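Researcher: We're reviewing a set of sequences before deciding which ones to prioritize for further study. For each one, I'd like a predicted 3D structure that I can look through quickly. This is PIPK domain-containing protein. If possible, include the structure in token form so it fits the rest of the review sheet.
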Amino acid sequence: PPKPSFEAVAPEVFRAIREQFFFLPQTEYRRCLCIEPLIHAGAGGGKSGSYFLFSADRRLIIKSVKKAELPFLTRILSDYFAHLEANWYHSLLPRFLGLYKVKLPRRPVDILLVMNNLFFIPPRHSNVQLLEAFDLKGSLLKRFVTAEEIVQGTSVLKDLNFCRHHSGTDNQGNQVPAECSACRQLHIGRARWASLTANLMNDVDFLREHNIMDYSLLLGVAELPPDPSQTSGEDTYFWPDCYSQWQSDAGGMRGRSEAGKELQVVYFMGIVDVLQEFNMTKRLESAYKQRVQRLAGQDASKISSVDSSVYAQRFTEFITSHWS
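Model: Here's the predicted structure for PIPK domain-containing protein, in token form for your review sheet.
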């Protein structure tokens, strides 16, 4: 009978990323993935059909990726490493920690990508409670999760759920009218606004230069307990303080007023889904959807599938207009 096969892609490069930019020793990485059972997290909410696994401590995510994403990632891997090397403490890009090809009997090859879990809350801060999660693209078409979808189990909401000041459509194409309210703001404080904006734009420039689009800002909003200095839970294993400027407060970034006063909220954020190239398939999809929008008398610029430069500008403008 055929035997299972397992192949690590560019193992030395990913080991360097783990140890230099994520502070994860090899022994700890093996413990996360091999010693304790993985947790099945189900299928993603997008169109890719990917499935997800968590390491037992939920610090790492293993995601199945499309076959076309493997050669694309290996092609940009050197540039990605150089970008992290220059910006490791400030970058909002995902930390790709391992890439594997797994072949089980009577199954096609699975390509598995290991990365950081943006919503990981260290055990010593387990009393921090994640209240909301959003996938933000800056697009307004099919970017609203309905109450029915939430009841059915959709937990990560979209752009129009995040800020009802805008109008757009839900997944079925139904109109979602704007509400008469001001744009929702993430309160990060004046001192960090410039730094966060500059580093977001730096990461987006990297994605644009590599013709990447369709990425999102994954955002989690958590509530701090009345006394955040009180911790709960124990750190059984190795935990570095943080691997990024934006993970330094209970695994995220604590909210601050314009004057710099600390707020009882923590934001977890990072750019995800960064392996979609604006290739011929996406160009055809873009042309078709723009034509459909124009024939319906709608704004064609609101579709998600657009040129990487247009996507980058729209994404940056939407995100930065919603933090203060």
